[in-house]
Design brief:
Blueprint: H1 4-13, E1 19-20, H2 22-31, H3 36-48, H4 54-60, E2 65-68, E3 71-76, E4 81-88, E5 95-103, H5 104-107, H6 112-116
Parallel strand pairs: 1-5
Antiparallel strand pairs: 2-3, 3-4, 4-5
Amino acid sequence: MFLLWERNLLKRVYPDMDLYGRKILEDLKKTHADTRGPISAWEAEIKDASWKTYQEVKERYPFVDHIGNGLHVFNIKGNKYRVAAKIFVGEADQLVIVKAAGTHKDYDSWDLEEMKK
């Protein structure tokens, strides 16, 4: 979780970066080789996205679950894998922070309430 000042600092240090938590995604790709293509495609789409509202996220990803407070859970490779990410949308910038990624079974043990904070 990033506080506003941390988020602003990260945007100054890494101005082109809009996706944080890539290591979590890389770890998933290493342990589950069948996610390499779908995760890489998802990352590329996130990089090119320019969402202004959460409704735009839902229009692009109809099966995404908006948990609350910007936290979304994306289905990857059907519903076999999941990515939990906090999304900040708006006019100024977009920031996506991956909180967790894993199998559907892993998802059952995630503390989504804690991730929303």
